[in-house]
Amino acid sequence: MVTCALSHLLLLFFALLPLSTVAQTSGSSINLRDSLSTDGTSLVSPSGDFAFGFYRLQDEDLFLLAIWFDKIPEKTIVWSAKVDSPVPRGSKVELRTDGQLVLTNQQNQEIWRANGINGTAARAAMLNNGNFVLTRTDSTVVWQSFNNPTDTILPEQVLDKSGRLASHETETNYSSGRFELRMQDDGNLVLYTVERLTRLAYSSYWDSKTVGNGSQLVFNQTGYLYLSLTNGTVFNLTNNLVSVASGGFYHRATLDFDGVFRQYIYPKTRRTDGSWEQSWSSVQFVPSNICTAIRGDVGDGACGFNSYCILEGERQRPSCKCPPGYTYLDQNNTFKGCKQDFISQSCEMDGLRAEARYEMVQVMNTDWPLSDFEHYNPINEDQCRDACLVDCFCAVAIFRGGECWKKKLPLSNGRMDPDDGSKALIKVARGNSTSPPLPTPGTSKEKKDEKTAVPIISAILGSSAFLNFFLLSLILWFIFFTNHKKLVKLQPDSSAIGVNLRSFTYMELEKVTDGFKEELGRGSCGTVYKGLLASDRANFVAVKRLDKVVKEAEKEFKTEVNAIGRIHHKNLVQLLGFCDEGSHRLLVYEYMSNGSLASFLFGSPRPSWNRRTQIAFGIARGLTYLHEDCGNPIIHCDIKPQNILLDDNFTARISDFGLAKLLMTNQTRTTTCIRGTRGYVAPEWFKNMAVTAKVDVHSFGVMLLEIICCRSNVLHDLEDGDDAILTDWVCDCYKEGRIDKLVENDEEALHDPRKLERMLMVAIWCVQEDPSLRPSMKKVTQMLEGAVEVAVPPDPFSFISSLA
């Protein structure tokens, strides 16, 4: 809705414009009979932030009539004309003399027009807020892109009842996709999966639960997205912890092609060298897990049929995978589904031939909740496996907790969830998947075999009784041996538990490490040795021999290790296996080729400022995952540079997480490895205070200062005793306004003062003695990345506990 004030401003604005701007890419309006073509002309808002015109796609001869952010390197589209396909070179959009805005191709055929114009348009303009408007001569708006959104809304834009957003098909295909956000007439904001052709909705997978109360979806100027309720209150969709300055960031909220509704920000400021600091960052999104949110009875779910959805990467975005024996229908669109790569089992094939032709491949924590056609309870895993193997209709069996579900094609709503606990048994062809099935009963080959068998059987029956007895015994022994091998094969693999964890014997690890020959590191937790798996001559591992496991944890060792093995994140070292044999407790990890952060940070030469900042961001993301995003939140309790490892690409990987329950001892809190390392432990360890995830925040703050200054927290050889403790020295420099002293001779850091100050302020917030003042690791990550403003921190040592 455009106010009278806005109308008068528009009238004044248009009066100041030149009469013809069609040939100028910087112009912001056109008049009747003016047009824009694919030759590069566009309307640019007075601020230069937005442009309207023909957006050239990857194919240089295809274009999209669109609105996009024009100042930033990522020319992100926020609106496009709803057409079946992009238009070719030579197309144009014209404001005709009848007041209609029409898009035509090079043959002058109409492709699209701005429908629903309330009156006759005399002018079209691109406004500073990203709204493209058609107005009458008196500047009254008769049509606007804000009232006809595609997949995005912008600040100052509202979505009234019956309004909707439609996702794109893919990141690069701008046709309408499989998801819609609808502001329903009943006041509920709902996310739906939809049928592509009819646009009819399947079941919802997220809603605001404001039936009868919601009136419109509002995106205000300060960057907050909320539902305006009829009782005068609001339902806030933007996290209250995300405080962003409206003038410092571009904002958008987009229903992405993967079905997630995300709010994004992008900093308007550049680095001192003129480059942009970062790309779009997501500050809020719903649903939290698209893979598990969609549970409708029909439709293909978050991913297409015969595939499964999994959250991956540091941003935990959905990715679609094909199960074993299947490949993508379209390699350019992995969300479209998968197809079977082998010939399906014939229903005329008996059990023996099915076992010879097919096998069951196991995938952990994966399920297709729909497509069930049989259910068994109780049943063991081997029975579940065999029941599917001999059933020509069964494509997958799901085994969980003594129950078995048989599934048929097409498989829908597939998802991999580390907390699911199910085991997917997938039927695939043995050997050459494209070879024809074995002969069915009655074929010429079987008849030939039967004719050959007749004289053999006759010879056996006509021989002596002793020979018959001998041959019969031989046959029985052969059958027993074959069945025994089959049973052994079907037994669960005792060498693996959890998610792809391998159980090693102590002798195996002795061999892997060449008798524990090459030591990588030693600490109060144990010693780490370099090893090489015999199965892969290029696969190095790190084997950690735990010195002490508390008695209470010995019985739960496998359970705890299994829990650690389920944790996957880009910034965590992956656990590969373990040894639980007698008194031996060992853990097998990925080998990190670039060693620890300690050796990297405090060595020579000094690491680059950019690499140091990226390492700090990675550690923060890893801790955020441990504290808030993994199935069972984990407090590390020993964050220090020695426990941060660097992979081939110098990506920070946190190690030794999840060992608290295994190694908790009665030793002094300042000396035991699990309770922390002197110099990094939080003050509450020394007070009668509850220990929370904030102890990790404190340790991270100390380590962040080390990353900034490239020096250890405690130095014993400094002449100035006041500078020996890093945290004291940093706080003194900060109070004196001399933060340049912290990075002397580091030209790269000195030329990035804004980031330097931001990181320093975040670190000081983290090392506050009062744990309640420390931010969460999620907030720390947002502050480091610039998504949240950093307030001036107080003196970290002003907190005096009455319980000290």
Strand order of the largest sheet: 37-38-42-43-41-40-39
Give the mean pLDDT.
81
What overall geometry do the principal axes of the alpha carbons give? globular
Q: In CATH's first tier, which class of the largest domain applies?
A: Mainly Alpha
Runs in which pLDDT lies below 50 for 5 or more consecutive residues are 1-26, 432-464, 481-499, 664-674, 716-722, 800-804
Note the beta-strand portion.
25-35%
Helix vs. strand class = alpha+beta
Return the CATH architecture of the largest domain.
Answer: Orthogonal Bundle
* Integer-rounded radius of gyration: 33 Å
Number of domains: 5
Helix share bin: 10-25%
- Termini gap: 60 Å
Counting H and I runs of at least 4 residues, what is the number of helices? 17
Superfamily (CATH H level) name of the largest domain = Transferase(Phosphotransferase) domain 1
Largest sheet: 7 strands, mixed
